[in-house]
Model the fold of this input.
Amino acid sequence: MTSNDVAALGPRLPSPVRELTDERFERRGVRLLLKRDDLIHPALVGNKWRKLAPNLTAAAGRTVLTFGGAWSNHLRATAAAGRLLGLSTVGVVRGHELAGRPLNDSLARCAADGMRLHFTDRSTYRRKTEPETLTALLAAAGAPEAYVVPEGGSNAAAVRGCRALGRELDGCADVVAVACGTGGTLAGLAAGLGPGQRALGVPVLKGGFLDGDVRRLQERAFGGPRGTWSLDDRFHFGGYARVPGELDAFAADFERRHGLPVERLYVAKLLYALLTLTEEGAFPRGTTLAAVITGRPFP
Done:
C-alpha cells in the first residue's frame, strides 16, 4: 500500500473553512469559523482521515489491527478504510461480555465492512500497550504479524499527519479548537499553526490525563514540544459517550439555528465549550475562533 493508493480515495483537502453567523458569539465580539473536516471523505470522516492515511501507508498491505470501544468512531473508520483499500482489518473491542450479544449499529457497520472483531476483557484491554499483553492479544486475534494502530489512531505518524490541519488554518484564526479523545489531533494541530495562533483542546473523556499524553505524542512525532496549546477539562459531561439532556438540547438547538448536523460525542461538547467560554469572556473582543468539525452523526 503506497501513499498514492491512499490518495486515490479522493479526499477533499484542504477541507473548507466556513464562517458561521451566531448572535451569541457576535454580541461578545467573537467571530466563529467552522473547519469542516467532516467533509474530507464520506467514509473516513474528519481527523480520522488525517490520522489513518499515514498509518495505512506504513502498513504496506499488512493486516491492520486496532482498538476501540463498542461505539468507536476510530474502529468504524479503520474498517471502512480496509473495505475501500482491500486491506484486512481486525478490531480489538473493549468488553468481553459483548461477544455473546447482538452487535450494536457501530460494530455491525465494522463487521459489514469486513473487520474481524475480537472481544477482550476490560482488565486486559487496559494493559494493551504492555509488550507481553499486546503480543498475546495479537496471537489471540489471529493476527500476530499485523500492523498495530493504537486506540483512537494516535501515534507519531498520525500526529505528523494532523500537522497539515494546522497549516491549513495558518493565519485564519487566533484560536483553533478541537474536541480530544486521545490527543493526537491536538498535538499535530498545534504543531502546524503559525506564530501568534494557539490551539485549544476540549477533552471528551474525564480524568485529566491528556496533558501528558499530548506532550509525549509531540515528543515522539517531532522530538519535542511544538506550538502553543492548552486543554479545558470542564466539558466532558461525565465521560465518553455520555450525552445528558442538557448537551443533547444544546446540539439540537444548534442544528435548528444553523442547519448543521451536530455529532454528539465530540462536536457537541466542543461547540458547547466554545459558547460557554465566549460567554465567560475568555476570548477578547475581536478574537476569531475556528472550531474543527471532526465528525458527523452516526448512523
